[in-house]
């Protein structure tokens, strides 16, 4: 069982699985959400995820296009959220309290990356993944 938390520790969660893979997204929304050149995240089945504390401290910001960012109200950390009402959770890997060694499956939206953001050629994808299902398959999430 893995555990994770926000910056202030108000929001905590656990995972019944250890993610094997992650991805980076370099689109402008993910850059602004993370404050760096990309987000670094994975997806897990909702059945493998559980909130341990602080769920009432979570607020959401949703763009009309559907982009969603859930965050801890006290500290502002992005926190996991339900992916488009599907049975999957979007999980920023930096929130995990346990050390794991997943592999990167790709750098998506690389054409949107800032010039200072160095993207390895072997993981570069110009656009977003073709579908949520395709991303789940690459992440090996059933």
UniProtKB/TrEMBL annotation:
Transmembrane domains' residue ranges: none
What Gene Ontology molecular function terms does this protein carry? carbon-sulfur lyase activity; metal ion binding
Q: Which residues lie in coiled coils?
A: none
Q: Where is the CENP-V/GFA domain?
A: 2-117
Q: Cross-referenced InterPro entries, in alphabetical order?
A: CENP-V/GFA, Mss4-like_sf
The UniProt record lists the keyword Oxidoreductase: no
UniProtKB keywords: Lyase, Metal-binding, Zinc
Its family remark reads: Belongs to the Gfa family.
What's the protein here called?
Answer: S-(Hydroxymethyl)glutathione synthase
According to its UniProt entry, this protein's organism is Rouxiella badensis
């Amino acid at each position: 069982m893995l555990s994770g938390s926000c910056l202030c520790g108000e929001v905590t969660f656990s995972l019944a699985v250890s993610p094997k893979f992650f991805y980076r997204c370099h689109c402008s929304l993910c850059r602004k959400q993370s404050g760096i050149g990309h987000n670094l995240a994975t997806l897990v089945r909702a059945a493998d995820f559980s909130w341990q504390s602080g769920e009432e401290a979570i607020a959401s910001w949703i763009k009309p296009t559907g982009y969603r960012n859930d965050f801890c109200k006290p500290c502002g950390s992005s926190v996991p959220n339900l992916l488009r009402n599907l049975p999957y959770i979007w999980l920023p890997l930096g929130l995990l309290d346990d050390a794991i060694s997943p592999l990167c499956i790709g750098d998506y939206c690389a054409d949107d990356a800032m010039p200072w953001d160095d993207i390895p050629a072997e993981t570069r994808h110009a656009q977003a993944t073709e579908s949520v299902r395709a991303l789940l398959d690459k992440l090996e999430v059933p």
